Amino acid sequence: MSEVRIVVNGVERVGVVEGRTLLSGFLRDGLGLTGTHVGCDTSQCGACVVHVDGQAVKSCTMFAVEADGRSVDTIEGQAAPDGTLNAIQQAFQDHHGLQCGFCTPGMVMSAAALLKENPTPGEAEIREYLEGNLCRCTGYHNIVKAILAASGQDVAAIAAE
Amino acid sequence: MYSFEVDKPGSVEAAVAALQIEEAMALGGGQTLIPTLKQRLASPSRLVSLAGIAEMKGVSAVDGVVTIGGGTPHATVAREAAGAYPALAALAGNIGDPAVRNRGTIGGSLANNDPAACYPSAALASGATIVTSSREIAADDYFQGMFTTALHEGEIVTAVRFPVPQAASYQKFEQPASRFALVGVFLARFAEGVRVAVTGASEDGVFRWSEAEEALNKEFRADALTGLAIAPENMIADLHGTKEYRAHLVSVMTKRAIRAVG
């Protein structure tokens, strides 16, 4: 067992974890931050994507001890303290970018990472960036629209396939 | 997962010492090892994380050689090697998905030597040198079959030196679910000759297609491969493709690489 100190959504959290404790497990079971979903546990689905030092990672494929001393951002830190959704979350709502909602935390965190790298990505760039995030409800189209809208771009131009 | 301890050494020397413990294993970015541990296919007593070793990170280009630290993630290679070795950067930028590229490392990929991994083809086609914690190994001697390399127990890939070719192209026929190469061909054209390395196809792991190299050294165009074929016997067969399918893809992807290089 070892002690970890991780700044989660801007607040330092201290915990005692086993070597094999995954970052997703520390967030969910240790801190009660269950917005980070574990879909496949095989690093395929991307529902567990969080940011570590600002970079998107699959939290089911990283140990909590590897995040010691680092900064982690999760879906819980995306909205303002009063509950106002951020631009990406609001765009997902406006454009029906979710149905069951299971993949949504990972989608929003991947979208946030993409827009940080590339503030106005094209449709193809968005689809490529979401290769590691699976959604079984929406067919991705409305997710792509939401991310275009969140980046201030016109969504009317993309036709439904 | 079975239980284990995690060490986080700050230097190559300390990592090598930590790996002397029985059943210790090196942990790179963990993108292959962690799923393996979850399936209980490995049961180390201790993982030695290489992530905190600063001397094993980074990309530099000096005198026509690109050197990449063994602990450098794919996303960093995609960004920082783009100017000096564009084909290598493009390969790195198309491994897995963005979140995987932020964690997975070149040293981890080369140490694991998955028969469908991308990096082994680049290392072999470029005639790279694998620098380890104890020696330097030429790529031609390093890859020794599926999941098998010249590395000894406890030896760490600390850096990889790639001579930069005049022109190069990596053509990957992607298996869309895993995003590994169903077949990938890395073609590198040097003043001394052409090198063609194939991943994803063979039961013996990455290999050089020497007949294609000879043909291309005589005449560098896609038609030079006419009449050449890979024998299907040693190709991988699985639910994604037969031996014959993979053998055919090797020719197709090699021709695409030739055309891309021009």
TrEMBL record, chain A:
Which keywords appear in this protein's UniProt record, sorted alphabetically? 2Fe-2S, Iron, Iron-sulfur, Metal-binding, Oxidoreductase
The record's section on InterPro entries has: 2Fe-2S-bd, 2Fe-2S-bd_dom_sf, 2Fe-2S_ferredoxin-like_sf, 2Fe-2S_ferredoxin-type, Beta-grasp_dom_sf, Diverse_Oxidoreductases
Checking PROSITE patterns in the record gives:
2FE2S_FER_2
**Which Pfam family is an annotated match for this chain, by its short name?**
Fer2
* 2Fe-2S ferredoxin-type domain sequence ranges: 2-78
What name does this protein carry? Answer: (2Fe-2S)-binding protein
UniProtKB/TrEMBL annotation, chain B:
Tell me which SUPFAM superfamilies the record gives: CO dehydrogenase flavoprotein C-terminal domain-like, FAD-binding/transporter-associated domain-like
Question: What name does UniProt use for this protein?
Answer: FAD binding domain-containing protein
Tell me which species this is from: Sedimentitalea xiamensis
Any signal peptide, and if so, which residues? none
What does the UniProt keyword field contain? FAD, Flavoprotein, Oxidoreductase
**InterPro entries xref list:** CO_DH_flav_C, CO_DH_flav_C_dom_sf, Diverse_Substr_Oxidored, FAD-bd_PCMH, FAD-bd_PCMH-like_sf, FAD-bd_PCMH_sub1, FAD-bd_PCMH_sub2, Mopterin_DH_FAD-bd
Q: What SMART domains does the record tag this protein with?
A: CO_deh_flav_C
Which stretches make up the FAD-binding PCMH-type domain? 1-167
Q: Which PANTHER family does the record match to this protein? A: XANTHINE DEHYDROGENASE SUBUNIT C-RELATED (PTHR42659:SF2)
**Which superkingdom, per the lineage?**
Bacteria
